[in-house]
Each structure stands twice: as structure tokens, then as C-alpha cells.
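cron nightly-structures :: item 1 of 1
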Amino acid sequence: MRSDEPAAPFEVDRGGIAGAAALISVGNVTSRVLGLAREMLISNLFGAGGAVSAFRVAGRAYNLLYELLIGGIIASALVPVFSEYAERDAREFRRLLGSLALVLAAVISVLVLLLELAAPA
């Protein structure tokens, strides 16, 4: 390439991104189906009493956080980054996923602990 030629624009491998997005989509659909099964089981076992209502209210905070933050982050940022890492270096990709899983587990653990401490005895 000559110095007066413009640099080639960044090229994105659509197959890698599409595959990663498809995998995330399958996981999301599976999560929704399992959530439906959970709701059916809870309704069958406990009915519609006060304990079930308290369980649902406690679960709303986590679900809202997931929908707003985690779902948006995955859709807009992580899929392209993960695709690039996976294509470039599989070891680095596994290390990145392990680090991300550890951080998410720590954050969720702290949130659960805070909610348990804040809950009435």
C-alpha cells in the first residue's frame, strides 16, 4: 500500500457476529421458556397467595436490572467484542469470558447479600 492511499475501512466478519448473536438469541429464548415453566410450577404449587406475591416483588428488581443493563450491553457491545476475541485468540477469549463471569458473579452476590440484609427478619 502506498502512503498516499487511504487506509482500508475496518471490516467486520458478519458470519462471526451473526453466529454469536444467534447463540445469544437461543440462550435468551431458552431462558424465557424456562421462566414460563417456573411460573407454571409456582402457580401450581403455591397458588396466588401473599408469599407468591412477595416472591414476585423480590424478583422484579433483578429482572429489571437484567433487562435494562445486561440485555442492552450484550446486544450492543459484547457480541462484536467476543466475536473478535474468539476469532483472534481462543485462549484470550476463554480468559475474557472467565473474568467477565467472575465479575458478574461477584456483583450479583453483593446485590443478593445486600437484599438479604435489607429484608425484614
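cron nightly-structures :: done
The mean pLDDT is 78.
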